[in-house]
Design brief:
The chain is of the alpha/beta class. It has ten helices and eleven strands. The strands form three sheets. Strands 3, 4, 5, 6, 9, 10 and 11 form a seven-stranded mixed beta sheet that branches. Strands 1-2 form a two-stranded antiparallel sheet. A two-stranded parallel ribbon has the order 7-8. The two termini are about 45 Å apart.
């Protein structure tokens, strides 16, 4: 078994579809099928059964797919520690980063860090904060950067806080929100729960959602065009011209904040590249543009 074979099993089990797996791994479908047959031959078992709609893993296949995560984790740890034995800041730093932080902050951080440590490469996984939390929790990445407060027992560093605001092109009164058209967008469960709790504490009626979009950036553009109001973190509105903002507050008048954290495991600091990155980021003021 080669490293890539374990990766094939892992991704195929997640996708349950040969075509999608081939696309994700950037290999042809025939090549993937051939490699899967070689794995089946090596273990002497059938791993998947082809059906009209996709595939189904056999019990033996499910077992191997579950072993794939552990195998890949161990392979990465071995590679990390071998490189670390040289005493240099080098190797591949694996990061799991929330979508918006990836677009707004991460490129600048990686550029600055790379300038200081040119022998470090990056493997970045992006997605919803809950998924990035699972990545760091399961040690699939060295460092997780997530937005929101998750139950985390490892090491963490607060990167920055931001207010949550009602955004609109024209000035509006917060008391009038139940009668105004709101623009909603897909977001993390924790943030949606926070906004819903704030709404229920302040209004007796459900919001009038006139538009639902896929991303917060799309929502921002709709607000800029005067198509409704939205409730969003203030970082999203950074640099937006002529936007009226009202920070939402709790019952005591304190602003409700959204926090962005860097999570990592204490033992990962034994790796030179992780230690260097953590200390480098801790020295940055990410509340300001880089």
């Amino acid at each position: 078994m080669e490293d890539r074979d374990w990766t094939i099993l892992k991704v195929l089990y997640e996708q349950q579809n040969i075509t999608r797996t081939a696309q994700i791994l950037f290999i042809s479908q025939p090549a993937l099928t051939n490699r899967l047959q070689q794995i089946e031959k090596e273990f002497g078992v059938q791993i998947v059964q082809r059906r009209r709609r996709g595939i189904a893993f056999t019990p033996e296949g499910e077992y191997l797919a579950k072993c794939a995560n552990e195998m890949l984790l161990n392979i990465n740890k071995i590679k990390d520690h071998v490189i670390n034995m040289r005493g240099e800041v080098a190797g591949t730093l694996r990061l799991g980063v929330s979508n918006y932080f990836t677009r707004s902050k991460l490129p600048g951080i990686l550029e600055l860090f790379k300038n200081n440590y040119p022998d470090v490469e990056f493997k970045v996984v992006t997605g919803w904060s809950r998924d990035m939390f699972n990545q760091i929790y399961n040690q699939q990445v060295h460092i997780g950067i997530v937005r929101g407060d998750y139950q985390w027992g490892g090491q963490k560093h607060l990167l920055f806080e931001e207010t949550i605001c009602i955004a609109s092109r024209k000035e509006i009164n917060a008391d009038d929100l139940p009668g105004l058209s709101r623009i909603d967008y897909e977001t993390d469960h924790l943030f949606k729960l926070l906004v819903n709790n704030w709404w229920s504490e302040n209004y007796a009626y459900s919001p009038v959602v006139g538009m639902e979009v896929d991303k917060v950036e799309t929502c921002r553009e709709m607000v800029l065009k005067g198509l409704g109001y939205a409730i969003m973190p203030s970082l999203v509105l950074e640099g937006a011209p002529n936007i009226h903002k009202i920070n939402i507050t709790d019952k005591n008048g304190n602003p409700i904040l959204k926090r962005t954290w860097m999570y990592y495991h204490q033992e990962s600091l034994e790796l030179n590249l992780v230690n260097a990155f953590v200390h480098y980021v801790q020295g940055l003021d990410l509340s300001k543009p880089l």
